[in-house]
């Protein structure tokens, strides 16, 4: 049997979703678990998600599943029931919901891909087994630990994500990829920190869960991570009427690029250095650099990152 896939162009799909203007929820979820028959599992996901009019991306590998999707609001409960029954280990799976409702612009199509890893960690140590993970903490505990001078918060996202928003005083492990970040992590967290409280966080939880396991393997003792990542923290804080201590915007890997969490703007335009958190891709197709650009420079540079690129469009 040939693999199921989308047969319409991205342009057509984008036009259709914008015309329908149907209220949609943006969801993300992941689960580390063993999947034996990848193609069969992948096609079942694709067929069912298509029936529920789900858009977005799903990665499947032998180590589990990772998904960022949008779904018509009226299909959510039906979808959740399907997901919980898909595999015993997916029952009552933690699902993150976006802060904003009725957002139709996040995804234009459904993509379900088989990957070697759902998150590429680059770990080559044959003794490492992804088993023990850090202790989950909720929003209330996060706020308490942020005020504890003996607690170190580590941001397990890429540098361009950290730049527009993070928790106060969170440690940035400078990197462009998760693989690079894990390599640098242990070097930076020297022996004196092995008995400190360490809180790790990322967007939705998938990266920091594996990172806590890597830290524990490297003999760090008191390792925690935020349930549901930044998304889970904000939702819990809102639900329980707690102060939201995350500053700035959260980078997201869809057409929205970022999502406001606080009114703070902690990053700056690449060209004029004025406060801005607006990420764009350079309009010159051979460049396509992701960078921060304010509205004035967007006009002056015609959505390009430099004068040279502007001259080539």
Describe the structure.
The structure is a single chain. This protein is of the alpha/beta class and 313 residues long. It has 3 domains: 10-114, 2-Layer Sandwich (Alpha-Beta Plaits); 135-239, Oxidized Rhodanese, domain 1 (3-Layer(aba) Sandwich), CATH 3.40.250; 268-313, no CATH class. The protein is built from 10 helices and 15 strands. Strands 4-1-3-2-5 form a 5-stranded mixed β-sheet. Strands 6-11-10-7-9 form a 5-stranded parallel β-sheet. Strands 8-12-13 form a 3-stranded antiparallel β-sheet. It is globular, with a radius of gyration of 20 Å. The model has no long low-confidence stretch (mean pLDDT 91).
> Which geometry do the CA atoms define?
globular
Proportion of strand residues: 15-25%
The CATH architecture category of the largest domain equals 2-Layer Sandwich
Distance between the termini: 44 Å
Which series of helices and strands comes N to C?
HEHEEHEEEHEHEEHEHEHEEEEHH
**Coarse structural class:** alpha/beta
**Count of distinct structural domains:** 3
Low-confidence spans: none
Mean pLDDT: 91
What CATH calls the topology of the largest domain is Alpha-Beta Plaits
């Amino acid at each position: 049997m040939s693999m199921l896939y989308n047969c319409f162009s991205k342009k057509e799909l984008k036009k259709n979703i914008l015309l329908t203007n149907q209220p949609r929820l943006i969801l993300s979820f992941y689960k580390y678990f063993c999947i034996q028959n990848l193609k069969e599992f992948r096609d079942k996901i694709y067929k069912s998600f298509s029936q529920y009019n789900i858009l977005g991306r799903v990665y499947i590998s032998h180590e589990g599943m990772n998904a960022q999707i949008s779904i018509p609001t009226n299909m959510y409960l039906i979808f959740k029931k399907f997901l919980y029954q898909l595999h015993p280990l997916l029952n009552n799976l933690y699902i993150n919901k976006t802060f904003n409702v009725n957002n139709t612009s996040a995804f234009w199509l459904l993509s379900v891909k088989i990957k070697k890893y759902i998150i590429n960690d680059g770990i080559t140590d044959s003794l490492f087994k992804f088993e023990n993970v850090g202790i989950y903490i909720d929003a209330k505990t996060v706020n308490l630990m942020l005020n504890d001078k003996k607690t170190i918060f580590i941001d397990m996202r890429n540098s361009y994500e950290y730049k527009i928003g993070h928790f106060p005083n969170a440690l940035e492990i400078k990197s462009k990829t998760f693989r690079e970040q894990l390599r640098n992590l242990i070097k930076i967290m020297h022996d004196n920190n092995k008995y400190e409280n360490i809180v790790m966080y990322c967007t939705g939880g998938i990266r920091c869960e594996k990172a806590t396991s890597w830290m524990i393997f490297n003999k760090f003792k008191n390792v925690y991570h935020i349930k549901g990542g930044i998304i889970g923290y904000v939702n819990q804080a809102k639900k329980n009427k707690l102060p939201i201590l995350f500053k700035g915007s959260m980078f997201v890997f869809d057409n929205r690029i970022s999502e406001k969490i606080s009114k703070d703007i902690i990053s700056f335009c690449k060209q004029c250095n004025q406060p801005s958190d607006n990420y764009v891709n350079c309009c010159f197709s051979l460049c396509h650099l992701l960078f921060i650009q304010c509205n004035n420079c967007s006009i002056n540079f015609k959505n390009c990152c430099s004068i040279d690129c502007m001259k080539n469009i």
